[in-house]
Design a protein that fits this description.
By secondary structure, chain A is an all-alpha fold. Chain A contains 15 helices and 2 strands. The relative contact order of chain A is 0.18. Classes of the chains: A mainly alpha (324), B alpha/beta (250).
Chain lengths: 324, 250
């Protein structure tokens, strides 16, 4: 039975995100954000929401998701340059390529847990990074990066300025909605159970390994969509797309926002990018130091990230009994 | 008819022979207790049955199907559930979510790609889970976090998890360990009243529990079965008294 109230309750978060995202070009300049940064924020929202399916649900911390982001970005660039300037086939091929790689890496790395899993994913990502810089230089452009793409087209529509922003925002809303659907499904329940007690889950008749692999591949697909959109947003791919710095940034965004809440990491992504690109100017050279202090304060006093702060405030001001 | 047939199972850890040519038949629908001094191999035998340990030798048949070299989750899907010595639950989830997991496992098997199906839309399944929780007397904790329950309630929750996917064989590893007297009595009542034809194998140190529940008892000592029979036969068995001497009063 689906009632209107049910629909509202289930999709409240998605509708609110849609409202904030779609009105961003109106309010973002008021707080000093420039055009283009809003697009980048939407793209990273996609990346971190997907990452939360792996880290937030199953508890597996990957330090190598930049690999899928980067592989997809390079594939998109090569597709746009050599095949067609239409972004649809480019995105599809890029996501498919990254998914295939994720399937293989997932099968190999998920044999281990904890720190060993993290190190393995990091090693694989670094391997792709060095491959892009050496044997694949002809395709990736090596140190100079991949350039010379034509203006990306969505069929007859030039992907420039606000068009790119709305395309990315709609993708982010859709993918956030799908992530919420996964969270409410039996699959989401099994993934979260992996984080709680994997042994009990296996003894309850569930093949935990397959669910872990599914979470890994899904999160890689989100990373791949984000990587592909990065090239649509700015027709350039550098090898730093694949680097450990990129992977680490996603982890920091997730932790600062609130792991496992889906919306939290998106807040974290918005905050980090805003801080790096806008506040850093007014803070001057010391901005990284300030960011470090903020990160430490959040981790020490609010391990649940921004979402824990939100929950605490909610508890203080509204004492309603909420189902979810 | 025997639902479980353990035939000549041997297992050693390095030089230690944990199980030596164990033969055991468990009758369908019966309650069978496994007793013995510490280190006799009782828990090891249960771990062989759940697929956690692979024996060096021998065979285990469950309802005519071999159990060796089968994954733990497949063994559970065949109908064998295990209650652990320390309650194994999903502490960061609510009681209802805990029991929803086996309900979906029973419907979907060990893996299913139904990523976009709303769980709350499956009213009959959720209601079944709620009913299981009520049957075990946890109705007041439906939406509490499982980790916040008392030890006795955690044990009951674990039983609800195990029973929710309708097992045919329930393995219990010291279900009353660390429980207060009245909690133990409650657990005995619970197991006694659970008469849906579920076969039960209980590993237990508390003789009060063993003698009030078991129809048949097997005694393990140093990895071997040294005696087997009804509670009355076991009570006076000279080998059993010898094995337990200095351990506990039988």
């Amino acid at each position: 039975m689906i009632t209107q109230q049910n629909f509202w309750q289930h999709n409240k978060a998605v509708l609110m995100f849609a409202l904030v995202a779609l009105t961003m070009p109106l309010w973002f300049p008021l707080i000093g954000g420039y055009s283009g940064l809003d697009t980048k924020i939407m793209i990273f929202c996609i990346f971190v929401v997907g990452f939360d399916i792996l880290l937030g649900f199953t508890g597996y911390l990957s330090f190598g998701h930049a690999a899928f982001f980067g592989i997809s970005a390079y594939t998109t660039g090569i597709m746009l340059k050599n095949f067609s300037d239409n972004i649809i086939p480019a995105i599809i091929v890029a996501v498919a390529a990254a998914t295939l790689v994720a399937l293989i890496i997932g099968l190999l790395t998920l044999k281990r847990t904890g720190i060993y899993f993290s190190i393995l994913t990091l090693a694989f990502a670094e391997m792709f990074d060095s491959m892009a810089m050496s044997m694949l230089q002809k395709w990736t452009g090596g140190e100079n990066g991949l350039t010379g793409m034509p203006t990306p087209m969505l069929f007859d529509l030039k992907m420039q300025g606000d068009t790119v922003f709305y395309f990315c925002a709609l993708m982010a809303i859709l993918l956030y909605y799908l992530a919420k659907r996964i969270e409410r499904s039996p699959v989401g329940l099994m993934m979260k159970a992996i984080k709680c007690n994997q042994t009990r889950l296996e003894y309850t008749g569930i093949n935990a390994r397959k669910y872990k692999l599914l979470a890994f591949v899904l999160s890689a697909m989100y990373a791949a969509v984000a990587g592909s959109l990065m090239v649509v947003y700015e027709p350039f791919v550098g090898h730093e797309f694949l680097g450990w710095h990129q992977s680490g940034e996603i982890v920091i965004m997730s932790v600062i926002g609130g792991v496992g809440t889906l919306v939290g990491p998106m807040l974290g992504a918005g905050f980090m990018l805003y801080f790096e690109n806008v506040l850093s100017v007014s803070l001057g050279e010391q901005w990284l130091l300030v960011l470090g202090v903020i990160f430490m304060v959040v981790v020490i006093f609010m391990p649940g990230g921004f979402m824990e702060a939100v929950a605490r405030l909610k508890k203080r001001f509204f004492t309603t009994i909420d189902g979810e | 008819m025997a639902i479980l047939d353990i035939h000549q199972v041997s297992l050693s850890f390095g030089g230690l022979k944990a199980l030596q040519n164990v033969n055991l038949k468990i009758e369908k629908g019966s309650t069978h207790a496994l007793i013995g001094p510490n280190g006799a191999g009782k828990s090891t035998l249960l771990n062989v049955l759940t697929g956690m340990l692979k024996p060096d030798d021998g065979s285990v048949m469950f309802d005519g199907k071999p159990l060796l070299n089968v994954n733990s989750f497949d063994i559970n899907q065949l109908g064998i559930a295990k209650v652990f010595q320390t309650p194994a639950i999903f502490p960061e989830m609510t009681v209802l979510q805990n029991v929803t997991i086996p309900v979906f496992a029973a419907r979907d098997g060990s893996f299913n790609l139904n990523m976009f199906e709303g769980r709350s839309r499956q009213r009959p399944l959720i209601e079944f889970a709620e009913q299981q929780i009520c049957e075990l007397g946890l109705e007041n904790h439906m939406h509490s976090l499982a980790g916040s329950l008392s030890r006795g309630d955690k044990r009951r929750l674990e039983m609800a998890i195990c029973l929710a996917n309708k097992p045919r064989l329930l393995l219990l590893d010291e279900p009353t360990a660390g429980m207060a007297r009245h909690e133990t009595e409650k657990t005995i009542e619970l197991l006694k009243n659970m008469n849906d034809g579920i076969t039960k194998v209980i590993v237990e140190h508390d003789m009060n529990v063993v003698f009030s529940l078991a129809e048949k008892i097997s005694v393990l000592a140093q990895g071997q079965i040294i005696a087997e029979g009804s509670p009355d036969e076991i009570k006076g068995h000279p080998k059993v008294i010898e094995a337990y001497l200095g351990e506990a009063q039988v």
